Amino acid sequence: MARPNFLNTARKKGVFHKWRITLLALLGLIFSFGVHLLSAASIVLAIETPTLSSQPMSNASMSGIQTPESIEQLMQKGKTLYQSGQFASAAQSFQQAAQVYQSQNDLLNQALAFNFLSLTEQKLGHWNQASVAITTSLNLLNSSKLSSNNAKHILALVLNTQGNLQLALGQAENALQAWQKAAKTYTEIGDTAGNIGSLINQTTALQSLGLYRRTMKIFEQVEKNLLSMPNSVLKAAGLRSFGNSLLASGEIEKSQQMLEQSLTVAQQLRSPQEESATLLSLGNAAFAKGKRNFIKESTKEDNFLPSRCGQAIAQTEDANYFKKASDYYQEIANKSSLPITAVQAQLNRLSVLQFLGQQPTSEELESIQSALSNWPPSRAAVYAKINFVQSLVCLEKAHQQTTKEIINSLILNPEDIVKLLNTAVQQAKDLKDQRAESYSLGYLGQFYELRKQLSKAQQYTESALNLAQLINAPDIAYQWEWQLGRLLLVQGDSETAVAAYTTAVETLQTLRGDLVALNPDIQFDFRDEVEPVYRQLVGLLLQPDRTANDKAVTKQVSQKNLKQARNAIEALQLAELDNFFRDTCITIQPTQIDKLVDTANPGTAVFYSIILTDRIEIIVKLPHSQELRHYTTYKPKVEIENILEALRQKLEQRYTFRDREELSQEVYNWIIKPAIADLEQSHIKNLVFVMDGSLRNIPMAALYDGKQYLIEKYSVAVSPGLQLLAPKQKQRRFEALVAGLTESRLGFSSLPNVATELQQIESIVPSKQLINQAFTDTNIKQLVSSVSFPVIHLATHGKFSSEVDDTYILTWNDKIKIKQLREILQTREQVVGRSNRVPSSIELLVLSACETATGDKRAALGLAGVAVRSGARSTLASLWQVDDKSTSVLMSEFYRQLTQDVNLSKAEALRRAQEFVLKDKGHPFYWAPYVLVGNWL
């Protein structure tokens, strides 16, 4: 078979650098039409967001502008086409209108037409055309020098559109400024609704910039303004838009509160349209909450394309969320007067039913098919067909795995599915919507992949890829690069398959913080649609030969492949953190681990792990060696996960012995034992681990070789990736800010020995103490901004979770969430520009009474998130709660070791402190949970 065209095209790294889009730019934005627009909401996780309109540009409000009826009709035609998803035709109408207005020297309406043209070009992904249109609009307004309210109103609309474009291009600061100007303009003309909309827009930019506290302040202001408004359709839509914006930022519970209030207003107004729209959002919020909890607790295999389907779950609290979502969608389908909204709800419900282990009736499927047939051509209609095909595929899969009879020939009739996708392709072509066309072609290729018709699958996949590259859409392109890699691999072309996978990973890396915004038009799950790309590439690069089961083996893999595999592991670690924060989390200038390893004294080795479907792979970097070591242990992923979970449970139980040691030794045999000879030959004293998946939940210090624990021989640290903040020159004396709670607060138990812990630290390290009532985020922020504290020690309850909004530190009166913690602790960086006396980052952050969330398989991701976002070079934290007396002893010894010898590394100081406690209390429960993350020196 011919070599794929995409491999013959020279693609420089960062080819898509100019393309950036943020999920928050798609959810809750205030578009400049005087209507509530429906996005491609038939796709569940594109969370339906009928956007809050600014003051409608009605004939009355435009009475000061005289326009011929034909031109007004042309503008209205463009708006109608836009609202129905026919963007290419809409752009043509707006372009024509702008030309007519130009001939009449009507600058104000010409500016308005170019504003709408920019919005339309943005929907098509035509960023250059959109930029030209919005710049032209602003220039026209500046040249007109009109000061009427109508002119200011149009200016505000244009500024909102400009902000939308700037955020889509990754210019969050510029977008924020544009939306601030829009809000100011709306305030000047007394447009409350427009002001609220611009404020909601500002939160999207602030969140993109990581300014959590300012975001929350604006949310509070928006909530106050909305609730003070009298009941109206505008208020219902505003509350809904606000709720959708909160949902996009991860504030699910708060989102549900706003949506419930929107529903109440809509019901009191007896507005079926508003009620249905809000019910759709409530269904999406319940679905998001159920899926979030499901992902936390799930250990399922990577459910990657082409068979990404929901998994039926047990009757738990999570199932209740899915059931509630299903009920919302069913209510819409039963009573909505809008056919499009009804079919959107029906399609969403199909996805929810997969998690409930239920199947739709044949009547429901026939109803959806009929509605799709009658849906006028539009982008939303194309995406709805794709969504429906995905659900049909999952139903067929469920049919093959169960004895339940499904009475519907559509599910088992591939010809009908192909016909549906071909219709989607043709509609996209007719609409001149290349983005929708690429999706349609790609999913047609995917369906043929499922049917094992590889030639057709490759043909359609390459066509989809060519279109995605043509329109500069990396979020689509990576999917078809990945799909092409799978197809080539099945056909035995491993070399070209690796090239395709490599290109997919490179494309993903150009997206960085936008990973959570991938495919806003289709169902998206990071674990299903991003992780497998990296894992499958690593599997291909390492390609072990199958030998005896459960045996660690050494296999000759080229150094080029080993280095590329290690880079892919690092890229996955970074992508996970970006997905955790919903933005690009690494904004500092890091230092390569390899440089520290080669210069560190004593010798340091770095272990990289990745868990694949049938094995665990270990790559080891030794000092002063360009040659990476590689070890493989064959074992099914499900067994690996079960062993790791059992070990974690035994480590947290104080009275477990033999079984705990056996489990710990087995994990030791996977990771450490194959490398012992290399470690001894290189005189290694310190081990750094870049751990994957559930391995993050295991403290490596507790690994057991049959005679002693790892910590008795090596100091241990954990790194979230290949890059770290470089250590600064060591200080003989340093100041610490120590804070904590001894009393019970906000439902958390008291920590009576915290007072002793803080006092002992103060006796060793010059410190400023905040305890109980004095321990507030405000006091910490004030101190950090005014005094140099290389060490910040917080002895308080805290939780690490795989969800950013469930990761927090407890203070006297509140929970400091991770985003807020970052702003509090990084105030010192803002001070640097004004005073050189304040260091640019914290040397050590200690969280001595925290724990990972129970039942959350990826909870340790929250610890990595804290380590990265705090800006600290090193973070010392606990994976589970230990009695605070043992904590006090260990922390005192840690600081004593650290201050007695200026040349002692933090990792070695921790090792000595842990060994000190181990001699008194041998069980790992007391000393093992303390993990040093980041720079170990």
Layout: helices, strands, pairs:
Blueprint: H1 23-26, H2 69-83, H3 87-103, H4 107-123, H5 127-144, H6 149-168, H7 172-188, H8 192-208, H9 212-228, H10 233-248, H11 252-269, H12 272-297, H13 317-335, H14 339-356, H15 362-374, H16 379-401, H17 414-431, H18 434-450, H19 454-470, H20 474-490, H21 494-511, H22 526-529, H23 531-542, E1 552-553, H24 559-581, E2 591-592, H25 593-599, E3 603-611, E4 615-621, E5 629-634, H26 637-652, H27 658-671, H28 676-681, E6 684-690, E7 715-718, E8 723-724, E9 736-740, H29 754-764, E10 767-771, H30 777-786, E11 791-800, E12 808-810, E13 815-817, H31 818-825, H32 827-832, E14 844-852, H33 860-869, E15 874-878, H34 884-900, H35 906-920, H36 924-927, E16 930-934
Parallel strand pairs: 3-6, 6-7, 9-10, 9-11, 11-14, 14-15
Antiparallel strand pairs: 1-5, 2-8, 3-4, 4-5, 11-12, 12-13, 15-16
Helix pairs in contact: 2-3, 3-4, 4-5, 4-6, 5-6, 6-7, 6-8, 7-8, 8-9, 8-10, 9-10, 10-11, 10-12, 11-12, 12-13, 12-14, 13-14, 14-15, 14-16, 16-17, 16-18, 17-18, 18-19, 18-20, 19-20, 20-21, 21-23, 23-24, 24-33, 26-27, 29-34, 34-35
Detailed description of the structure:
It comes from Dendronalium phyllosphericum CENA369. Residues 662-935 form the CHAT domain. This is CHAT domain-containing protein. With 937 residues, this protein is an alpha/beta fold. 56% of the residues are buried. The longest helix has 26 residues, at 272-297. The protein is globular. Helix content is 56%, strand content 9%. Among the domains are: 67-145, Tetratricopeptide repeat domain (Serine Threonine Protein Phosphatase 5, Tetratricopeptide repeat), CATH 1.25.40.10; 359-527, Serine Threonine Protein Phosphatase 5, Tetratricopeptide repeat, CATH 1.25.40.10; 530-724, no CATH class; 736-934, Rossmann fold (3-Layer(aba) Sandwich). The model is unreliable at 1-68, 403-410, 516-524 and 829-839 (pLDDT under 50).
